[in-house]
Every structure is written in C-alpha cells, then in structure tokens.
Amino acid sequence: MNTLEQYGFTDRIGGLFSFHFPGPISTEPARVIRSDRGRVLVASRHGILHLDGGSTLVTGDWAAVRPEGTVIGCLPRSSLLRRKRAYDPLSEAQVLGANIDLLGVVVPLDRPLSTNRLERTLVAAWDSGAVPIVVLTKADLSTRFNDVVAETVQRARGVEVLTTSAEDLDGLEELRGRIGAGQTLALLGPSGAGKSSLINALVGDPRRDTGEVRAGDARGRHTTTARELVPLGDGAVVMDTPGLRGFALWDAEAGLSEVFGDIEELFGGCRFRDCAHGSEPGCAVQAAIGSGALEERRWLSYRKMERELASLHRRQDAVEQRRHERSFQRVAREAALAKDHRNRFREGR
Ligand SMILES: Nc1nc2c(ncn2[C@@H]2O[C@H](COP(=O)(O)OP(=O)(O)OP(=O)(O)O)[C@@H](O)[C@H]2O)c(=O)[nH]1
Ligand SMILES: [Mg+2]
Ligand SMILES: [Zn+2]
Questions:
Q1: Nearest residue CA, atom 16 of ligand 1?
Q2: Ligand nearest to the CA of 242
Q3: 211 lines ligand 1 (CB under 6 A)
Q4: pLDDT tens-digit profile of 288-339?
Q5: Of 29, 48, 74, which one is at a domain's C-terminal end?
Q6: Do 64 and 201 share a structural domain?
Q7: Contacts of 139 (CB under 8 A, 6+ apart)
Q8: How far apart are CA 297 and CA 115, in angstroms?
Q9: Atom of ligand 1 nearest to the CA of 197
C-alpha cells in the first residue's frame, strides 16, 4: 500500500480525479493531512510532501498537485465541518475538516455531561454531511459520574453510542470496525477528553502527544494544536483535532432539524400558523412542555440555537448589503468619470 492509499485513496477517488482534472496538464492526487497557518502537509504516491500556497486547503481535502508542487485545485468535498469563528464581526466560517465519513462526538466519562455541548456538536455533525457517532471515552473512570452513560444515550436520540477506554483498551475493536478502508473518522470534543490517547490506542503506538487533565475539574491543556490525519494501516483514517472550547454554529439549519426534528414536528399542531410558541392559545409546544412530553430545557436549547442562526443570517445579509452598496457606488463613480471624460472630449479639452 502506498502512502496515498494509507490516507484513504481508493479507485472511486481516482475516478473523481480523472473526471475533475482531465489532462493534458499532469497532476498528482494528494490528500491534505495537516494544514497549519499556510503550511500544508500532503500525502502523495511518493510519500509526504510540504506545499506552499495551498492556503484554501483544509485537512482531509483531496488536492490535485503539479509535479513541482503547485496546487491546481481540489475535489468537491463530500462533507465539510464548519463552525462560526469566535469573536469575528464579519462572521466568517471556520472550516474544521473535509471529506469526513464518520464524525465521532467525543464525550469523556471523567466529568459531568455537558448536554449543551453534546447537542451542539451533534447539530454541526449532522450538518457537515458526515454520519455522527458518539464516542464515550475513559470508561475505566465511569464510576466517578454514574449517570453520564445513560444520560448520553438518552440525549443522543438514536445516534449510535460506543464506549471506549484507551487505558483498558476497551471498545477499540468496535470503533475500528466502524471505519472501513478508504473512510475517515474525525474525533471532536473538549480538551482532555482523550481523543489523542484513543488514536494512539487504535494505532497501537503511543506516538501522539497527550496531556494531563487538571485534577480539580478534569479540564485539558489543549495539547493537540492542529487538525491532522492519522492512518490506521489499511486505508482507514482518523482525524485528531484540538479540543474545542465552544461550538458556535454556522448555517446549520439542516443539522438543527435532524437533532430537534420532534420539536419542529410539533409546530404543525399549533392553532395559529404564525404561533410564536409563547403564550398563544392552542400552542402545541407549550402543551407538550406542560404534559411533560417535551423537556423545557430542550425547547430552550433549540430556541437558542435557532436565534443564533437567525442573527448569523442577519449579519451575513448586512455584509452582503454593504458589499452591494459599495459595488453600486463604484459603478456610479465610474459612470460619472466616464461622463466627465466624454464631456471634456466633446469640449476639445
Ligand atoms: N483513565 C484514563 N485516562 C485517559 C484515557 N484516555 C485518556 N486519558 C488521559 O486523559 C488525559 C488527556 O488525554 P488526551 O488524549 O491528551 O486528550 P485530548 O482529547 O487529545 O486533549 P487535547 O489534545 O487537549 O484536545 C491524559 O492524561 C490521558 O492519559 C482513558 O481511557 N482512561
Ligand atoms: Mg489531543
Ligand atoms: Zn406554538
């Protein structure tokens, strides 16, 4: 198996390359295994190469590269994991990874469950186009917080939940069995959750850096600093990622509907079509909360993410509007200049 195949290259990917990058320019397929501040590391048939100037590439991308190292383009992405950049007034999306088949939402069993984080990450995972799976880590410590496993299964709402321990090497075969040849699993979760340790255990080689968690609150130290692909040996690939502090959503309506479909179904039962689901008579949402069929916390969490996406769209619209006005002003200015030029020409100046 050559280096490229170890990083997930298959006949299907080869076919896509011939389709999207037909001759006569000769290009080589390559997979981005790490992209860190403009420095891009790719796997190719000839081994691992450094590229300069692949700044639009993200980890997981399939790139077409000229023999001397110029990037020609990349294949359309089969999935794309994005979040909203924190503190970015222009609301640019941050792309976390591409061409991920299975998205492992990592929940560590050494601390209480953050329901909010789990729900958000699942929304983003569904939205990326990958299939989510919940990976519980540190099962050997699960007696510290007894109810996390059951609570996670309940909150995951039908998404498969696997329990693992890098310490006892538990659940590794089950997880490994989910990643076929040519498939990529990405692990996403808080710092110190044991993502890198799990990958080391899967690879059977303690090569990746792992860091202690703080004794008090089990928080990690952000040991992993860049997203990176790690081959598992037979064409199956895992993406290690740095621990995420939070997860602001980006255009994730489809994901929201996946995770909160039961709530959106209730809307049809409200008496008024434009029900705001507050104090309107005949509101199916409030009725479901009242009867205990819908947990109020879940409703509020849905509402919050929905508001977040709406305000993101308002900001995107505002940016678009300013861009439009600027281009209109430019056109008007050019027209005025042209007219001025014409007049001076007529006047023989
Ligand atoms: N008891 C136990 N400890 C574990 C297990 N997996 C990881 N740890 C410990 O948890 C700590 C954090 O592990 P890492 O693998 O560095 O966590 P990470 O998710 O990669 O963290 P970041 O890179 O900071 O995002 C380390 O001290 C590991 O030894 C496990 O299965 N059982
Ligand atoms: Mg790590
Ligand atoms: Zn209603």
A1: 210
A2: 1
A3: yes
A4: 999 999 999 999 999 999 988 888 888 778 777 777 777 767 767 776 777 7
A5: 74
A6: no
A7: 109, 163, 164, 165, 168, 170, 171
A8: 10
A9: 15
